[in-house]
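Saturday, quiet lab. Running sequence design on the structure tokens for the scaffold JK sent over.
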């Protein structure tokens, strides 16, 4: 199979894996609470907020693009400010493709977001290039919630091409501005299959703390 065919299969796999997480019967609800703070003050929120992921492999800093993907960025910031990503793992990593997080704890217990799914903003002109950050989702174009991935290489097959079921693509909402060496290290860790889940790191890669850089 040529590279294009392989990457198309991997793109489909992002959607398939999203479905698997939603169907999990073992939901860890620690990330959501009825007492969670209100959404960020949009009047004072930066147009380019920076999110720091402190992992057990090192620090990754992502600069988000609120102008290009306003609803997506506001959603990510809400989850960060409510501690949703703390303790989650990069549960799926594929060198030469991407690393994915935002759904599972180190024990592979699914953590379900209390927020509704998002309107796909993949038609914003941003591309799935190396170091860009984009929303993971199921096969339904408007099903993204809290999960996201970092592109390890350029993945043009994940870009928006048309407002159709097959053409929506995956919404890019930011880029890694510090820590691509950490992304590379995570992408290269040994992986295994856990149940129905492939490409799971043998040793968990954990987000110890996620926060907004001020």
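Result came back. Writing it out in full:
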């Amino acid at each position: 199979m040529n590279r294009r065919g392989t990457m198309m299969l991997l793109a489909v796999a992002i959607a398939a894996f999203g479905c698997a997480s939603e169907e999990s019967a073992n939901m860890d609800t620690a990330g959501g609470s009825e007492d969670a703070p209100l959404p960020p003050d949009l009047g004072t929120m930066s147009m380019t907020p920076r999110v720091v992921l402190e992992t057990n492999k090192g620090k990754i800093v992502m600069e988000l693009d609120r102008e290009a993907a306003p609803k997506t960025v506001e959603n990510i910031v809400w989850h960060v400010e409510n501690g949703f990503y703390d303790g989650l793992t990069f549960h799926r990593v594929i060198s030469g493709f991407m690393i994915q997080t935002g759904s599972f704890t180190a024990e592979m217990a699914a953590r379900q977001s209390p927020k509704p799914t998002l309107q796909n903003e993949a038609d914003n002109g941003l591309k799935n290039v190396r170091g860009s950050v984009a929303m993971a989702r199921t096969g339904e174009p408007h099903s993204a919630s809290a999960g996201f991935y970092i592109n390890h290489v350029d993945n043009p097959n994940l870009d928006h091409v048309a407002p159709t079921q097959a053409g929506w693509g995956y919404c890019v909402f930011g880029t890694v501005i510090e820590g691509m060496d950490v992304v590379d290290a995570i992408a290269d860790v040994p992986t295994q299959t856990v149940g129905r889940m492939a490409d799971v790191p043998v040793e968990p890669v954990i987000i110890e703390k996620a926060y907004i850089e001020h």
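Notes for JK: Residues 75 and 146 are 8 Å apart (CA to CA). The radius of gyration is 16 Å. Ask whether to fix the surface positions before the next round.
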